[in-house]
Every structure is written in C-alpha cells, then in structure tokens.
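Appendix B. Chain record.
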Amino acid sequence: HISVGGWHCCNEKYHFIRESGFDSGHLLFFSVSDGGRLQFSNGNIIKIPASSVAWIPPGIPHSYFTASGENWEFYWLHIAETPALQLKNIFRDSFCITLSDITEICREIENLFHSKNKNPREFQIEFSRRFSCIYHQLLMESSQQTIEQTKNDPLVREIIHEMESACYLDWNLPLLSQKY
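Structure tokens predicted for this chain:
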C-alpha cells in the first residue's frame, strides 16, 4: 500500500535529509530530468539521471537533493513493506536503474494521484492495480538489462563461442565447470 506520494520540480536549493530512514516501507523516485542525487550515511552519492528509478530500502539513513546549478523533476512514492514487494530483485546491487522510457510509468503515477481524488475509498485497490503494472514494467526492464549485461560478459561470450564451435560434442555442466 502507498503511504504517500507526490511530484516535485526542484532547484539546487532542494535538500531533504532523513537521518534514521523510514521505519518501514520503501521510497521510490521516478526521475523525469537529470539533477537528482541520493546520498547514504556512508557518504556514497548516486546520481539519479533522467528516465531512471531510484530506490531506498526501509531503515536506511539517506538524503536526496538537487545538484548544484541544476533542476530536478521527479515523482516519488512511499510504499509499505509487504512480503510480495521484492524491490531488491529489480535493483540488485544498485539503488538506481535507468529505463528506456519513463513516460508511461509517470503517466501511471499521475493517474494514481487522480484516482485518489476521484474515489478515496477505493484508492488502495486502484493503487494496488496500477502499482502492479508499474512493478511489472520495472521487473521487465530490469531483467532485459541483466540479459544484455550477461551477453557482454567476456566469460559468457567465450563459453558460448566454445559451445557453438564444438556443437557436435556432448556438453554438460561438469565439463564446462572443469574447463572454465
């Protein structure tokens, strides 16, 4: 369930600090333009480029801000922790993924906000339906990026080449494991 959400277009003076993180729930940023930065308590700063989604897991101290001399337009959603919501499967080892096109997701978020105004009683049901679509799009984009990254891995390319050049052989996992 959504706790709260919104849209911002901020200048370089925008800086929000959450020293203790959220007690529960995830924070998602859907970045429309460049300029956003996410900083964790260890000092790491992550750039949030246009057409990307950034994630802050529950309980992680953080701050987010607009880079000097820039503006940052973004949508944000604070979503309650649920067993079904496995955002770490989308973001894996990073806190930000770039999407091929964020326009449709932003349109869905805007529709979420409008649906809350139209029928507040049924908002959670409508939110669940619409967020499921957004979540599915994020999963699909993330899995496609993983496939592309895997194709570019030199070891994977070498194994595929070996298998293609000796396709008549009986390949099995133990044989590949010994060789590589």
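Further analysis of this model is presented in Appendix C.
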